[in-house]
Amino acid sequence: LMFVVKNYCDGAKLPLALVNYATLLFVIIGMTRINRHLKEQEVKFDEDEQTAQDYSIVIKNPPPNATDPDEWKAFFDTKFGPGVHVTCCTIARDNYRLVRALVRRREILQKLKWKLPPGTSLDVPSLTTIANDLEEKRNLFG
User: Fold this and answer.
1) How far apart are CA 142 and CA 135, in angstroms?
2) Radius of gyration (Cα) for the chain, nearest Å?
3) What CA–CA distances, in Å, run from 120 to 68, 105, 126?
4) Are 69 and 86 spatial neighbours (Cβ–Cβ below 8 Å)?
5) How far apart are CA 57 and CA 89, in angstroms?
6) Whole-prediction pTM value?
7) Residue 43: how many CB atoms within 10 A of its CB?
């Protein structure tokens, strides 16, 4: 009765280790070259593609009252000389908090619309009336 099987292999020898290291080195070099090639292709593609960012100017600290696009257009036309043509001028304000609040308000109104009977108006006077009615019906237990 035999409980242990004995192998007659030599185990890991130097030639096998060298083949493994050579394969690993080949894979690393290949990945590096592919990465470099992809970056070059990305740059080439980006240079072939024209976007609005290629022609945009960002003013970091404008005066607070400078909100007229026509005024900015006239400024750029005079500032950069006759060879430059301003096609479009847009003013974007940093109003992230306002936009988030408006989105949140829209979500809340949508949830109210689902909970109220169909056809219920969601204007301010109607919402005030609904809130007052709910407040009167509220008791100690909810």
Assistant:
1) 10
2) 34
3) 40, 17, 8
4) no
5) 10
6) 0.38
7) 10
